[in-house]
Design brief:
The chain is an alpha/beta fold. The chain has helices at about 45-55, 70-80, 100-115, 125-160, 165, 175-185, 205-210, 215-245, and strands at about 10-15, 20-25, 35-40, 60-65, 85-90.
Length: about 250
């Protein structure tokens, strides 16, 4: 049984962390296909060698699986050399069970692609890919900021500091000033009035009562300081990404 061929000069790649196995299938006018196989390093020099090897056989049509993150540098360099790359989910190029090797996998991808049996994945342009990476990273940073704030809030709760009852924002200027004063002078009583902003609507007496009940200073010093530093770092990276985006 023979399949209809849609491509007469194409290449299948089996991408790994260290090595890339390539198989070019060239079909003549009599529908006889000749295969050329080679192995290349995943270093930039090896990927440039792959592009030169493809140019040797006038092959500008390549198909490969989306293997982890290893396909990304391969895709980028092939794209820079003007080679059309089709990326496919591994479930569409999964080979038959048996005596499989990397070279056989590359040939299998080539055969499937040659017969038009590979479902391509959508790959946006380079600028959209970069923008998407930044937006995704900013999304992760937002969740990281929320997590660090929750850890810091837990430290305040364990230390019996009821700052969340007297301040609308525990990480505001007044609240942070009071927390830093407690960390710098653990166990000491102090007047909170100089640290409270004049626009604060909560009476100073109520804020004083929330602070005077502080316990577990060791826990507060160990965890709240670390959480605050992480929060500053994450916020700093978030500002940088915002600058890149806008």
């Amino acid at each position: 049984m023979s399949f209809k061929l849609f491509r007469f000069n194409c290449c299948g790649l089996d991408v790994h962390k260290t090595w890339i196995y390539a198989c070019v299938g060239i079909t003549d006018s009599n529908n006889r296909t000749e295969y050329k196989q080679a192995r290349f390093s995943s270093f930039t020099e090896g990927l440039n060698g792959l592009c030169g090897w493809l140019a040797k056989y006038n092959c500008t049509d390549v198909c490969m699986e989306s293997t982890g993150k290893y396909w990304i540098p391969v895709f980028n360099i092939l794209e820079q050399h003007g080679i059309w790359v089709t990326l496919s989910h591994p479930k569409y190029t999964k080979p038959m069970k048996g005596n499989k090797t990397d070279r056989k996998d590359a040939k299998w991808v080539c055969d499937l692609y040659m017969c038009g049996m590979v479902k391509p994945s959508f790959i946006p342009p380079d600028d959209i890919r970069a923008l998407r990476d930044l937006v995704r990273y900013r999304f992760k940073l937002t969740y990281m900021i929320t997590g660090e704030k929750n850890r810091a809030q837990n430290c305040l709760t364990v230390s019996n500091l009821k700052l969340d009852d007297v301040f609308s924002d525990v990480f505001g200027k007044s609240s942070r000033s009071i927390t830093e004063q407690i960390l710098q002078h653990p166990g000491e009583k102090f007047d909170v009035s100089p640290f409270v902003d004049s626009r604060c609507k909560t009476p100073a007496e109520e804020i004083q009562a929330a602070v005077d009940g502080a316990v577990s200073i060791i826990v507060l010093s160990a965890f709240f300081t670390t959480a605050s530093l992480r929060l500053q770092i994450v916020a700093r990276y978030g500002v940088r990404i915002h600058v890149y985006l806008y």
